[in-house]
Amino acid sequence: MGTDGEKQLRGFYRLSFYLALVLLLWERASAQTRYSVPEEVRVGTVVGNVAKDLGLDLSSLTDRRFRAVSGNEEAIFEVNQNNGALYVHKHIDREQLCQGSGACVMELKILVENPLEIHYISVEITDVNDHSPTFPEKEQTFEIAEHTLPGRRFQLHTARDPDAGMNSIRTYTLTANEHFEINVRQSDAGKIPFLVLKKMLDREQKDKHTLIVTAVDGGKPQKSGVLNVTVLVLDSNDNRPTFNQETYEISIKENIQIGTTIFRLNATDPDEGSNGEIEYRFGKTVKKSVSDTFELDKLTGDIKVKGLVDYEQNDVYELDIDASDKGTPPLSRECRVIIKIIDVNDNSPEIEVTSLSNSVP
User: Fold this and answer.
1) Residues near 318 by beta carbon (within 8 Å), at least 6 away in sequence
2) CA-to-CA dists, residue 39 to 125, 133, 163, 218, 236, angstroms
3) Which residues does the UniProt record annotate as the domain Cadherin (predicted)?
């Protein structure tokens, strides 16, 4: 039992020693000295006199091997054993050392020997506005149908700025225009820009819109980056074919040859693609005498003589013609072609002889 008691007592003393050592180190750590220095300062810039701030004797720094120890392979900060100053030893780029907008703090240990002392200091690297916002791509293209309702949103590329705090991206702007505005939504990933349609597009008025989106940071002076945005307006079938007049009048001679082209219709449709392709056909109420005498080319709009034209049988023809596009659903317009027949001397005179005398028996 005596032996066990001695072992317990030695264990107690050992534990007490370790606890005292931990408390001593904790006390020194809690009294940590803090400094601050902006990134991009010149190598050799003095951060502070750490020896004076720690109450060390400047005359004994060399003998006590006064030095700084950091966790980095390449020491960014060093101390001067002659005057006790902490200075910048390597170029500082905050964005390489720390990512994000939080505090960028470097932890250092200051060591002196004889007797051994360990002091903990921290140096906060503050941000300077040394980066401009950049977009992942220089250009972005949208295809938007002309019938799209206002209020529709289109997500733009998000700019990136490695600077922190006020030096990071503050807002997005858009060149003045009639149809679009910019809207910015805040998320965990940052500010996300959207292109918002505020006025309906019309391809027939303008089939392409060119815009510039600018990402602006909050630095002084401000820095910015641009994104070139192109909007291609897709066609919808919102226009009917049109003729340059509602009624056409032409005249032909009755002895005109079969197969002769007597007139060409030319309807126009400003829509694009199949929405602007036109076909021609006779109206549903056209008379049989018309379809027997004339034919209509559905693609060219040419009207040709199909049968014999005889003034004595019919001196005028009225053709109702539809021009229809190939949209879904198709849109159409009607016109009327009046064909007047010119008489020619194609009939011999008929002679009738009437006797005025009495017949001779």
Assistant:
1) 290, 336, 337, 338, 339
2) 6, 18, 11, 17, 56
3) 29-135, 136-243, 244-351
User: For the segment 318-331, what is each residue's pLDDT rounded down to a tens digit?
Assistant: 999 999 999 988 99
- The highest-level CATH class for domain 139-234 is mainly beta
For the chain, give every domain's residue range: 18-126, 139-234, 247-342
| Gap between the terminal Cα atoms of the chain | 189
Q: Residue 248: in which H helix or E strand, if any?
A: strand 247-253
Phi, psi of 50 (to 5 degrees): -70, -35
Query: Count of residues for the chain?
Result: 361
Measure Cα distances from 1 to 10, 29, 123, 215 in Å: 14, 42, 55, 80
pTM of the entire structure?
0.60
Q: Are 306 and 295 in contact (CB under 8 A)?
A: yes
Do 86 and 41 touch, CB atoms closer than 8 A?
no
Whether domain 247-342 has CATH 2.60.40.60: yes
pLDDT digits (tens, 9 = 90+) for 57-105: 888 898 899 998 887 667 889 999 999 999 998 888 887 888 766 788 8
